[in-house]
Amino acid sequence: MSTFAVTGATGKLGHLVIDSLIARDVPADSVVAAVRNPDKAQDLAARGIQVREADYSDPQSLRAAFAGVSKLLLISGSEVGQRLPQHRNAIEAAVAAGVGFIAYTSILNADTTTMILAEEHKATEELIRASGLPYALLRNGWYLENYTEHLAPVLEHGALLGASGDGRVAAAARADYAKAAAAVLTADSHRDSVFELAGDQPFTMAELTAEVSVHADRPVEYRDLPVAQYAEALVAAGLPEGYANVLADSSLGIARGELANDSGDLRRLIGGPTASLAEAVAASFKG
Questions:
Q1: Is 112 within 8 Å of 119 (Cβ atoms)?
Q2: Which pLDDT score, from 0 to 100, does residue 233 have?
Q3: Which CATH class is domain 4-140+173-197+261-271?
Q4: Helices (H), the chain
Q5: How many angstroms separate the CA atoms of 184 and 164, rounded?
Q6: Helix axes 174-186, 12-23, angle to 10 degrees
Q7: Which of 69, 113, 176, 278 is deepest in the core (most CB within 10 A)?
Q8: Confidence band (pLDDT; 50, 70, 90) for 12?
Q9: Could you tell me which of 136, 149, 123, 121 has the C-alpha nearest to residue 259?
Q10: What pLDDT sits at residue 214?
Q11: Handedness of CA 244, 8, 118, 67 (dihedral sign)
């Protein structure tokens, strides 16, 4: 029987992937939650899931965490600028531990996008291909939650700022990406595959704010700014300058169409339509 490991398992996506594996009848004791801090994974351990310490910056912990693992989901690290060496440690540990298959959460259109955020993803994909491990590249688009979980300041000011123009973003719910990852891990037909994972209904920022306005019962507008000005606004809101520049560049990537894709891969993997913008916004107002 296969053993499945999920890195970053205490994160929101990791938790949902584990839920999706269990929903696919994977026994709990065949799932390894690879986490930086096992104390934060007590809820997973209580479900019978194996919890193992795995720090992306500690190769020895990674090799131990991946021992006996058949299939590994490498969820990309959250430290922009530090992810490539961390991912390299994880990939090398997977090879050393004899992992049979690795799936990686990359970024939509990774091979063509010019977004700054994609650079570490592209480099990680290259490391995976060079490793000799059978792989699947899960090129996730934007999460709907990138917007719905951060509506408080938008509602406070009655405006969403950005540099996306009339560009469309094919965002999907985090749960949809998790279901897709579980589908790939539990199948035996996805060796050396690339999936462009995107929502079924791309939308503009103006369409997003129009939907928010309906539920907020007051007008919310989208204000399009030059990318440098948008980065300055993010810094003024308290974000570090480097991160603000990455986010502003990503917003500009939407304007260029780099976060849209009509491959249908996500819909096929989850076996039905992806969650819509309207559903996500409505759910965010229900608490």
A1: no
A2: 95
A3: alpha beta
A4: 12-23, 42-46, 59-65, 83-97, 118-131, 145-148, 152-157, 174-186, 205-216, 227-236, 241-255, 265-270, 277-285
A5: 32
A6: 50
A7: 176
A8: very high
A9: 121
A10: 94
A11: positive
